[in-house]
């Protein structure tokens, strides 16, 4: 899935915008400003919505206006371009929004001391438009594989899920290994295990509880926990199957554990609140955000697992799971 890239400019700079759009077409799903404004909506409302559903932004600052300031004349970008740069900078991330400034354009003094991507339309120059875009393209590709704390919660949820479930469960099973079958109070000793973290292909607005119940039933998984239900100690519940299935349960066994993080429900609810809609039907932006947040959840969790000696060879994360 390509990251979404918003590209904005003044009306006068549309030819340059189209050149920039072509430069990034291979690495991003480019969404240019003339096509993002919705019918019967204000321009600001459309821009705010776009900032919520895009991963990156590029604003093109060209020499559109002549400004007299303190006795000198300057060629400056259109005010709306600077406004939109600030809007996306705050809504998306300072690391993921870039100003592409035409050489010679006078920028606001607030940007003094900040590295700006200055370009010229003259080919063959060190700062020609294709050269500058190529550098930004590489930057976007690198950042697309990284995670940040953002408006939507997948990064924080993945960190919480790891520290509150994956990490302590893996540590317990490696160092103790005693688990109790649900409703049987029957003790089983685990020698080897694989924890399969399952992320649904389609995240329902109602959450993941129904998916969990149907998956466990379909695959005939048994419920167990690290503590008895009557215990005062905190236990970690999970579903599992004996694998291979013909093992002697009076001895230590190898098992496959399965868990669908119920915390994923928070992602679905947050997206519904973020993009409130009065219509019924599939919403492209909501679906994109759900897919993006699930992928980010998996990426963050994998990073944490890879740094954990108890988990890195015992946990597998599976995306796009269907019933």
Automatic annotation (TrEMBL):
GO terms for biological process: defense response to virus. Residues 4-119 form the CD-NTase-associated protein 12/Pycsar effector protein TIR domain. GO terms for molecular function: NAD+ nucleosidase activity; NADP+ nucleosidase activity; nucleotide binding. Its EC number is 3.2.2.5. InterPro entries: CAP12/PCTIR_TIR_dom, Prok_STING. Keywords: Antiviral defense, Hydrolase, Nucleotide-binding. The keyword Hydrolase applies. The keyword Hydrolase applies. It catalyses: NAD(+) + H2O = ADP-D-ribose + nicotinamide + H(+). Residues 153-302 form the Prokaryotic STING domain. In the C-terminal section; belongs to the bacterial STING family. This is CD-NTase-associated protein 12. The lineage of its organism: Bacteria, Pseudomonadati, Bacteroidota, Cytophagia, Cytophagales.
């Amino acid at each position: 899935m390509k990251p979404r890239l918003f590209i904005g400019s003044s009306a006068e700079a549309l030819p340059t915008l189209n050149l920039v759009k072509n430069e990034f077409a291979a690495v991003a799903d480019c969404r240019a400003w003339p096509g993002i404004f919705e019918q019967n909506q204000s321009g600001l409302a459309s821009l705010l919505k776009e900032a919520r559903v895009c991963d990156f932004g590029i604003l093109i600052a060209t020499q559109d206006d002549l400004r007299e300031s303190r006795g000198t004349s300057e060629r400056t970008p259109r005010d709306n371009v600077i406004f939109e740069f600030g809007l996306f900078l705050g809504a998306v991330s300072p690391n993921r929004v870039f100003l592409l400034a035409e050489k010679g354009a006078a920028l606001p003094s607030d940007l003094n001391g900040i590295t700006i991507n200055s370009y010229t339309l003259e080919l063959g120059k060190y700062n020609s438009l294709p050269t500058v875009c190529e550098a930004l393209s590489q930057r976007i590709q690198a950042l697309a594989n990284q995670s940040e704390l953002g408006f939507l919660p997948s990064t924080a949820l993945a960190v919480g899920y790891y520290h509150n479930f994956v990490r302590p469960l893996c540590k317990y099973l490696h160092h103790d290994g005693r688990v109790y079958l649900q409703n049987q109070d029957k003790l089983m000793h685990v020698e080897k295990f694989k924890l399969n973290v399952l992320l649904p292909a389609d995240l329902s607005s109602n959450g993941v509880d129904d998916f969990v119940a149907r998956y466990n039933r379909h695959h005939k998984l048994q419920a167990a926990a690290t503590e008895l239900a009557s215990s005062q100690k905190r236990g970690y519940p999970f579903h599992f199957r004996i694998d291979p299935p013909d093992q002697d349960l009076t001895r230590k066994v190898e098992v496959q554990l399965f868990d669908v993080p119920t915390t994923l429900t928070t992602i679905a609810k947050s997206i519904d609140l973020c993009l409130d809609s009065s219509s019924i039907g599939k919403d492209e932006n909501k679906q994109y955000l759900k897919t993006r947040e699930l992928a980010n959840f998996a990426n963050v969790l994998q990073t944490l697992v890879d740094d954990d000696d108890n988990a890195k060879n015992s946990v597998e994360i599976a995306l796009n799971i269907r019933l």
